[in-house]
Description:
Distance between the termini: 45 Å
Number of strands: 5
Number of helices: 2
Structural class: alpha+beta
Order of helices and strands: EHEHEEE
Shape: globular
Helix content: 10-25%
Radius of gyration: 12 Å
Amino acid sequence: MSKPIHVLYFAALREQAGRERETRATAADNPAELYAELQSVYGFELPQERLRAAVNHQFCAWDTALAEGDTVAFIPPVSGG
């Protein structure tokens, strides 16, 4: 059963998705499944292992359960020197 999830994109993911945020219906049960779904849609190049996931503005494990209306963000590594 699909549920609406708000997704926030940052840095390289924002560039590859061509947007900062979206609300999408998904059957993903956790951030790992959602990221895999988004990778297939947008062709994200970063592997999951290089990202942090956050649900409702709190960093979380990749297997954290998602509920209808959650806000999920995938945060790439920060670059700089």
